[in-house]
C-alpha cells in the first residue's frame, strides 16, 4: 500500500536566509515536481508575505514554515529576556505561517540549537519546566492564529534536552495543549532512535511533518537509512501529511558552519533535489 503524502523541499538546500530573492527558486522547485516549499524563517523582517503568496500561487505551491532557533532564542535560559525574544520570534513566525496558509510552525523551539552540555538532574528539571511553561504560552498564542507548533527533537550533539520521540512525547504531555504537535527529522532519528518504526508509531497522530535526508545528510536513497522502517511506521499511523527534504549547502558559510557541513555532499544541489524526490516518490508507493 502506498502512502498518500505530499512532498516538499527546504530552500536551505540552496540558500540562506530566506528573502525575496529566494522566490526565484519556486519555478524550479515546481518543475521538479514538488507540492510545497519549506520556508525557513531566520529573520521574519526579510519575508514579504504578499510577494511570497504571489509566488506560491503563480507556481501552484503550498508553504510549510520552520523556525531557526539560534543562541538568542532560548526558552530555557536563566535570563527571561531570552524568553521574550523567543516569544516575539515565534509570534512573528506564526503570523507568517497564518498569512501563507501553513498549518504549523516547526522547529526545536524549547531551547537554542547547539545547547548541549552535561548538567545536573536538578538543572535539567529547571530547564525542562521552563520549556514546558513557555511553549504552552506560545501554543495559546499560536492557537489564536489557527496555527500549531510542531516540536522537533534534535540529536545529542545539538541539544541536551529533547533527543528522541520518547522525549518529545513527554514534553507534549507536560505542555498539555492541543496546539502542541511533533515534527520528526530523519537525520536526527538515525542518530538517536533504536527503532525508527516504533518511534514513529509512538508519536502517532501528533506527527504533522517529517523531514528527511540520508544518514550523512545527503540525497535520500544514497546512504544507510532504513527507509523500510520509516515506511512501516508511517503506514501504521495512517500518515497522510507532508514529507520534505531538508539539507544544506556548504556555499553559505554561516549556515554550513552552524550545521557542521565542511564539504559538498553532492555535485549539484539541483541534482540533490531532483534525485531525492524521484527516490521518495518510488519509496512512498512501494509495497
From TrEMBL:
Leader sequence segment: none
Annotated ranges, domain Xylose isomerase-like TIM barrel: 28-282
Pfam families registered for this protein in UniProt: AP_endonuc_2
InterPro entries given in the database record: IolE/XylAMocC-like, Xyl_isomerase-like_sf, Xyl_isomerase-like_TIM-brl
Protein name (database record): D-tagatose 3-epimerase
Amino acid at each position: 500500500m502506498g502512502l498518500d503524502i505530499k512532498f516538499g523541499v527546504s530552500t536551505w538546500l540552496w540558500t540562506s536566509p530566506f528573502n525575496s530573492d529566494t522566490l526565484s527558486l519556486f519555478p524550479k522547485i515546481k518543475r521538479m515536481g514538488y507540492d510545497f516549499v519549506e520556508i525557513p524563517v531566520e529573520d521574519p523582517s526579510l519575508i514579504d508575505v504578499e510577494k511570497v503568496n504571489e509566488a506560491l500561487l503563480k507556481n501552484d505551491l503550498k508553504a510549510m514554515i520552520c523556525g531557526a532557533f539560534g543562541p538568542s532564542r532560548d526558552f530555557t535560559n536563566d535570563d527571561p529576556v531570552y524568553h521574550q525574544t523567543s516569544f516575539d520570534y515565534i509570534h512573528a513566525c506564526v503570523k507568517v505561517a497564518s498569512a501563507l496558509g501553513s498549518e504549523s510552525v516547526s522547529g526545536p523551539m524549547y531551547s537554542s540549537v547547539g545547547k548541549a552540555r552535561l548538567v545536573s538532574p536538578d538543572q535539567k528539571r529547571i530547564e525542562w519546566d521552563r520549556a514546558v511553561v513557555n511553549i504552552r504560552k506560545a501554543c495559546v498564542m499560536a492557537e489564536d492564529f489557527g496555527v500549531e507548533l510542531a516540536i522537533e527533537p534534535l540529536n545529542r550533539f545539538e541539544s541536551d534536552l529533547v533527543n528522541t520521540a520518547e522525549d518529545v512525547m513527554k514534553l507534549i504531555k507536560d505542555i498539555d495543549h492541543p496546539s502542541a504537535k511533533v515534527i520528526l527529522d530523519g537525520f536526527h532519528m538515525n542518530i538517536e532512535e533504536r527503532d525508527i518504526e516504533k518511534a514513529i508509531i509512538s508519536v502517532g497522530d501528533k506527527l504533522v511533518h517529517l523531514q528527511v535526508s540520508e544518514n550523512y545528510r545527503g540525497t535520500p536513497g544514497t546512504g544507510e537509512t532504513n527507509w523500510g522502517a520509516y515506511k512501516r511506521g508511517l503506514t501504521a499511523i495512517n500518515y497522510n501529511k507532508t514529507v520534505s527534504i531538508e539539507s544544506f549547502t556548504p556555499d553559505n558559510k554561516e549556515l554550513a558552519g552552524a550545521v557542521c557541513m565542511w564539504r559538498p555532499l553532492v555535485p549539484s544541489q539541483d541534482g540533490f533535489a531532483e534525485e531525492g524526490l524521484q527516490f521518495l516518490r518510488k519509496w512512498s508507493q512501494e509495497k
